[in-house]
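Weekly puzzle thread! Below is a chain. First person to post its structure in C-alpha cell form gets bragging rights.
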Amino acid sequence: MASPEEMAQTMIDNMPEKTGKSLEAWLSITKNAGLEKHGQIVKFLKIEHGMTHGFANLVAHHTLKSDAPVDLVSAQYANGKEGLKPIHDALVKIALGFGTDVEIAPKKTCVSLRRNKQFAVITPATKTRVDLGINLKGYDGTARMIAEKPNAMCTHKIALTSLNEIDAELNNWLRDAYEAG
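Winning reply:
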C-alpha cells in the first residue's frame, strides 16, 4: 500500500493532466490570491477554478506549507489509536480497488473517499473504534449499518473494531456507495 507521501506525490504528478496546470503554477495562483487560511484557498480553487476537493486540499497544504511536514493520517492514529490503523488501511485499499477515479482526501479528523463526490468517510472515532460513514441514499439501515440523521455527512455509519468486520457485506455497501457517487 502506498504511503501518504507517495499518494500525494502521485497526485502532484497527475496534476497537470487532471487540472491543466502544474503544482508550481497553482502555487503562483494561490499565493497571488493573498488568501491566508486553508479553507479559503480550497474554496477559491474549487469555485474559481473548478478544481476537485482533493487537488484543492493538496494545493492549499503546499501554499501554506511550513518546514514541518504534517501527516494527517498518522496524526489521526496517534495517542492510543495506533491499533486502528490497519482497519483504515484495509478500507482505503478496498476503495482504491474500485477504480482509478477514487480520491483519498485526508483531513484533520477523518479521511474522505471521493469519486465525483464523497462516497465514504473513515474516522477513528475512539481508541477502540473506526466509524465508516457511507452515502447510500435510498437504503434502509440495518443493525450493523445505522441510518444517520438527515443532513449528516453520510447517510449511514458502520462501527468497526477489528479487521474481521471488513467482510463481503461491507465491501458491497462500500462499492454501492462508490458506484452511486
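Puzzle host: Confirmed. Bonus trivia for everyone else. Residues 4-63 form one domain.
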